[in-house]
Amino acid sequence: MTDSLVEHLDALLPQTQCRRCGYPDCRSYAQALAAGTAEINQCPPGGEEGVARLAALLGRPALPLNPAHGLEGPMTVAVIDEQWCIGCTLCLKACPTDAIVGAHKRMHTVIDAYCTGCDLCLPVCPVDCIQMVPVAAANGAQGDQGIHGTASTATGWAAWSPAQAEQARQRYIARQARLQRTEAAHQARLLAKAEAKLADLPAHSKHTDPVVLERKRTLVEAALARARAAQAAKMQERLPRSEANEGKAHQA
Q1: What's the confidence (pLDDT) of residue 25?
Q2: What is the DSSP string of 6-69?
């Protein structure tokens, strides 16, 4: 498996990040395709044309979409019934492109242009106030043309342009980077708190026995060392893709 092949396969996917293929995101599916561990017919949003594109690149025979992963259909967008929304923020956490905006205990709404129709917000909503509707129905004022500028009966790549796919990919990457920064900052705060306690262990312990305190110090130091090593490993693991994305951003 080469990075180049993964990049080419990823570019042929619709970037809806819907997980219907059985993988956590489009890139993971591309990696599985490159490794030969996934079939080319597992992406309903890409439709039959998407299967044909993957087949051509990989030199495999085209296959009909596997219904176990869903069916090809019109492009949809999430619509929140604002009267029923309780502001739980669960849909915000589920949305892969940050297409939903709102605040805790405040009404949420969907930025139509950023919604990929992934459906991931539906199962997490505790009051079932979200519906997935065809893009044309979401904005009847545009007649036969939906909010994404595509006909309501169009499916697959006929309903989802390469420009929209690239926008979704970039928004997903930006979201993942933000989540990683947030998690790193959280871990850094926990480490700093533990190190501060370790620096003055007697003041932060109910024990006064020097032997017990030394044993506790050894345990805390070992735990801190493991935490630092795990944090460094995560940073190293994310570095190659992060550098590649930064390079693309500079080129753009």
Answers
A1: 97
A2: HHHHHHTS------TTSSSSHHHHHHHHHHT-S-TT--GGGHHHHHHHHHHHHT-------GGG
